[in-house]
Amino acid sequence: MTVATALAQYNALQSKLSAYNHAMSLIFYDGATTAPKKTADNRAHALSVLSEESYRLTTCEETVSLLEFLDAHREELSQKDRRSVELSLKDIRELQKIPMEEFVAYQELLVKADDVWHDAKENNDFASFCPILEEIFATTVRFATYCAPEMHPYNYCLGKYEDGLTMEQCDAFFAALRQKIVPLIKRITRAQQLDNACLHGHFDVSSQEKFARALMRVMGIDEGRCGLGTTEHPFTTSIGSHRDVRITTNYSEEDFSSSMYSVIHEGGHALYDMNSADDLAYTNLDGGVSMGIHESQSRFYENLLGRSEAFVAHIYPDVVACFPEQMKGYTAQDLYRAVNRVEPSLIRVEADEVTYCLHVMVRYELEKRAVSGELAVRDLPTEWNRLYREYLGVEVPDDTHGVLQDSHWSGGGIGYFPSYALGSAYGAQLLAKMKQSVDVDACLHAGDFAPINDWNREHIWKYGCLIKPGELLESALGEPFDPTYYTDYLEKKYSELYSL
Ligand code: ZN
Asked: Where are the domains positioned within the chain?
């Protein structure tokens, strides 16, 4: 075999795998959006056939020897091919460490867990979810031990979502945030509170959908390649490659800002995914490189841009056009203050910018202790409620509004949460860097996202997974990551808003 023929085989394999992914993503998207209620079994059948075939193709002997051959000739490969082979091999070697039966059993467990969690959340019944959650935590620890026996299992979990991330780094990062954020919240609580009455009323879904489309257009999202659907939990997914991306939102008829900010958040994810360099399509380098970088883009659009005075002033006429009755008597400044009201609350996804990271810290502390075996899964609700009281000063009335609120644990996403806080902090530093060459406020005032999107495309998006997340971030920033940018941003913005 020559390197050229091996590469041709490898490319054909990747193209085939991305077609399987295309079908599986579409089936998943259909189930979450428009599929009729009683069709889950039918989709499960198709999904199990496709995922088994995709698993077999990924791990079969032929694929492994092909990759080992290419790896042995890595010096002759382009940077792109080398990185692609390296990532494929890393994935396969990890999969190989987990016994096949245990891997399949875990996939089945997660499908079941999703149903059990939905019911448990609806019925405020943690006891019914506890046994399956115990199994998820136990399996997570066991798999971590198979894959990286030399590592603390929770460090392995963190690294799955942000390459190389450790508890030591998280502890230092969260301590730095806490030191600034906790006193800031105290000062805000003592100040005159901001009014958010203009967000409340009745907002019909069709006007909200019209508004969502207007937001996507302003953000520069190509609607010819990005669909908008409705689901209980908003998300973004690529269908086979960056050439077809879908975002979803959830409309609250009592508060239009809920869907507004989830559209902008998911729109940020979509822009990142859609703007991989075109030649990365149908390879494992297509799309975002890590969850921390992904959240840095989504939370960048949602908060740093979407909740800025300049953007709110620009979008205000669209809000009035969609909701003329409800907005009567309210100015753009009223809207700006309303969407930035700070209030310690129970639900992470609805939290304001200032208290948001405290929600993440609660989850981080609990995961760390549960994975280390210091905290029993059955004690999670009690500890959850205690930490909400300690960090946010709120009383959790029931598990539906507490430990059962997020879908991450039922989906096996242990170690994911710190990405949200890291992403928020990356975003603030990226904005400072961007402002050195782009007049961001003028762009937002004019509703011209092109210079902002161009900067992100050049520095982040186009690379897909070509560069490791840490290197990508540092090269975009031109300096090491420093969370002070984030805490400075929060202090400045909210001191002005609350006249502190
Ligand atoms: Zn997100």
From this structure: 3-150, 167-497
CA of 413 to the centre of ligand 1 (A): 13
pTM reported for the whole predicted model: 0.94
Just list the catalytic residues. 266
| Torsion 69-72-78-79 (CA) sign | positive
Q: What is the DSSP letter of 482?
A: -
How close is the Cα of 269 to the center of ligand 1, in Å? 7
Contact 126/381 with Cβ under 8 angstroms? yes
Percentage of the chain with pLDDT > 70? Answer: 100
Distance 301 CA to ligand 1 centre (A): 11
Residue pLDDT, tens place only, 48-93 = 888 889 888 999 999 999 999 999 999 999 999 999 999 999 999 9
Query: Cα(162) to centroid of ligand 1, in Å?
Result: 14
d(CA 172, CA 164) in angstroms, rounded, equals 15
Query: Does the domain made of 167-497 have the CATH classification 1.20.1050.40?
Result: no
- The 10s digit of each residue's pLDDT in 102-126 is 988 898 888 888 889 989 999 999 9
